[in-house]
Amino acid sequence: MSVSRRRILTSGAVLAAGGLSAMRSSAVHAGGAALEIPDSMHEQGSPVLSPAYGLPSKFEKNVVRRIREQRVTDTESFTVTPLQNLHGIITPNGLHFERHHAGVPEISPDQHRLLIHGLVDRPLIFTMDDIMRFPAVSRVHFLECSGNSSTEWKKSGYHSVQKTHGLLSCCEWTGVPLSSVLGEVGLKPEGKWILAEGADGAGMTRSIPMEKALDDAMLAYAQNGEMLRPEQGYPLRLLVPGFEGNMNVKWLRRLKVGDQPWYTREETSRYTNLLANGKAYKFAFAMDVKSVVTFPNADRSFKAPGFYEISGIAWSGRGHITRVDVSVDGGKSWQRASLQNPVLDKCLTRFRLPFNWQGQPVEIQSKAYDNQGWMQPSRSNLIATRGTNPRYHFNAIQGWIVAADGRVTNASI
Ligand SMILES: Nc1nc2c(c(=O)[nH]1)N[C@H]1C(S)=C(S)[C@@H](COP(=O)(O)O)O[C@H]1N2
Ligand SMILES: [Mo]
Hints:
The chain is an alpha+beta fold and about 425 residues long. It is built from seven helices and 24 strands. It is about 15% helix and about 30% strand.
């Protein structure tokens, strides 16, 4: 049964007016009573500039990044975004997931340089001041590590959406279109690939196809209105919207134009995908269409029968989301969720569906579609075509079981 938003609102209003508790929320019938005057109304609040850079309320102290995997060195470990606590589509900077192969370097913007060389007419070295003089653009894009949800190829045992899907964040990025800067150095016609190198201890390098470089790649220096966080590549990172996280080289110091890919260490060992038939596929750049329900979740769920709003996020590295279907019966039947504007290219899209929970166990799933004709696969379909060897690019439908007591668990277990 589909319950429209209007119906919920009217029935809610009627119930409130009638003093009934069929909403079964914990709201209490007010009668004619007034609220007690809270202490906060008797006191002077804390002064301005404490602290000068603002922090969330102390009651939100559990809303933090968490380590998903503890690696040999602390700096190799990675942290995940608390998707269960976020609203809308933007990830606050302090909650952006982190993946570094050799920790976070400290780089002064005055000292930082970007070299562009190789198959170009005029090799140039840019300062940050030089880069910030170019005409800038701001765009909202997600960033997803290709290892996001990799634990779900096998049955992970993670019940938290932060652990299963939290190598994913979404910011408004500001910077210079890479094409403008490439125009300045002048590309030779043989230039087909660009090697991007980071200034961290890992010296991370990836090969970027020229087509993407000239399309929507960006030299980003700001994130959600402020300069990049050190963890996100301060003072400069490459942003290749929709492509796997690894290609978005942080602390960017060098771009070398060549006529073929470099097959860097990242490309030959780490970020390849071994298939069931023994072949491997490399250069799986775009992140596939995917979605996940973020409410209810293992931290916050249905408490009593009644009306709720199921909510989640959907994204595609190839374009924008056109449709998200939600199932509450483990994928037997589907209802179309509403997509909240703005719906942008290579960006998280928030979806919502009203739901009247009767207290029965349910399995909630979401399935996303994009404007390039892609649809999110079921777990069994994905595994049937790719096997369980690949570590990367897991984009299957995620199921959450809500038990009669409201407890949420991962359905794939
Ligand atoms: N220089 C450099 N760039 C890097 C990395 C790195 O270790 N060094 N990690 C990559 C990986 S694997 C991912 S998923 C993204 C993560 O970006 P974030 O830490 O801003 O979330 O950065 C990529 N760029
Ligand atoms: Mo990554």
